[in-house]
Amino acid sequence: MHPIAQVEGRFVDVDGHYVIVVGRFNHHVVDSLVEGAVDSLVRHGVDERQIDIVHVPGAWELPLAVKRVLARRAPDAVIALGAVIRGGTPHFEHIAGQCNSAMSRLQLDFDTPVANGVLTVNSIDQAIERAGTKAGNKGAEAAMAAMEMVSLLRQLDEAQEVAS
């Protein structure tokens, strides 16, 4: 019997071009997510010159900008950051749901990781907690997911080349 083959992303082969696409709405929260993402990338060896940041008005505009970045810049990964905070209207559900759905489609359509660091929370306090206080920094976590997927996909590509 041979052992079960396992493949998982590593954080030692994550160099490449990363684009962070940021919704400015709720910038007092989102700025901390960007700082966390950039810090995480740099700490794992990504050269700052290989990180681009694209600003859009809010979460609704993220998918179109991410699509254009994927099509024209061909990055190794995109990290989408923003904050959608529930209010007294159904606006929250429409924005959050459509944004998440579009991000999922884009990464499949372009065969490129799109890490979703868009906060969808019930209150400003929850947003602040997820932007670097009690609940960690979801921007840093999105960057980690992006790097892990870049590494994983490279390994899967290498395994395919060896098998061919």
Automatic annotation (TrEMBL):
Keyword Transferase set for record: yes
EC code(s) of this entry: 2.5.1.78
Active site: H91
A GO cellular-component term linked to this record: cytosol
Residues engaged in binding 5-amino-6-(D-ribitylamino)uracil: F25, A59, W60, E61, A83, V84, I85, N116
Enzyme class: transferase
UniProt keyword Transferase, yes or no: yes
Catalyzed reactions per annotation: (2S)-2-hydroxy-3-oxobutyl phosphate + 5-amino-6-(D-ribitylamino)uracil = 6,7-dimethyl-8-(1-D-ribityl)lumazine + phosphate + 2 H2O + H(+)
Pathway info: Cofactor biosynthesis; riboflavin biosynthesis; riboflavin from 2-hydroxy-3-oxobutyl phosphate and 5-amino-6-(D-ribitylamino)uracil: step 1/2
GO molecular function, one term: 6,7-dimethyl-8-ribityllumazine synthase activity
One BP annotation, GO: riboflavin biosynthetic process
Top-level taxon of the source organism: Bacteria
Residues that coordinate or bind (2S)-2-hydroxy-3-oxobutyl phosphate: G88, T89, R130
Keywords: Riboflavin biosynthesis, Transferase
UniProt subunit comment: Forms an icosahedral capsid composed of 60 subunits, arranged as a dodecamer of pentamers.
Family that this chain belongs to: Belongs to the DMRL synthase family.
Annotated NCBIfam families: lumazine-synth, PRK00061.1-4
HAMAP family to which the protein is assigned, alphabetical: Lumazine_synth
Function: Catalyzes the formation of 6,7-dimethyl-8-ribityllumazine by condensation of 5-amino-6-(D-ribitylamino)uracil with 3,4-dihydroxy-2-butanone 4-phosphate. This is the penultimate step in the biosynthesis of riboflavin.
Full protein name: 6,7-dimethyl-8-ribityllumazine synthase
Gene that produces this protein: ribH
